[in-house]
Amino acid sequence: RYATPDGGAAMYPANPNGSDDAIAGVCNPQGNVLGLMPHPEDAILPHQHPRWTREPARAEGDGLVIFRNAVRYAASL
C-alpha cells in the first residue's frame, strides 16, 4: 500500500497512479502470483533511480532484491 509517514493511505502524488485504497500490490491466496504497481523491473540498475546522479553511488538498484528473493525461493523448492 502506498502510505503516508504515519501509515495512512496516501493520495497523489505519494500514490502516483491513484489506485483505490492506495493499493500498491496484490497476490493470490496461495502467494505464488504477485501484481505490484511500483515496478521493481524499472529499478534493477542504479542509474534507473530518478536521483542516481544526486545520491551516493550504488552497486545495484533497489528493485533487484525482489527478483533475487524469487530466485532463492524457487531454488529451495
Describe the structure.
- Pfam families: GATase_5 (PF13507).
- One of its GO terms (cellular component) is cytoplasm.
- GO terms for molecular function: phosphoribosylformylglycinamidine synthase activity.
- This is Phosphoribosylformylglycinamidine synthase.
- By secondary structure, this protein is an alpha+beta fold.
- It has two domains: 1-35, no CATH class; 39-76, no CATH class.
- The protein has one helix and two strands.
- It has one helix at 64-76; strands at 25-27, 34-36.
- It has a two-stranded antiparallel ribbon with strand order 1-2.
- The model has no long low-confidence stretch (mean pLDDT 90).
Quick summary:
The protein is built from one helix and two strands, in the order ββα.
Helix content: 10-25%
Largest sheet: 2 strands, antiparallel
State the low-pLDDT regions, or none.
Answer: none
Proportion of beta-strand residues: 5-15%
Q: Can you give the mean pLDDT? A: 90
Q: How many domains is the backbone divided into?
A: 2
**What's the tally of helices?**
1
Features:
77 residues; alpha+beta; 2 domains; two-stranded antiparallel ribbon; 2 strands; 8% strand; flat
Topology:
Elements: E1 25-27, E2 34-36, H1 64-76
Antiparallel strand pairs: 1-2
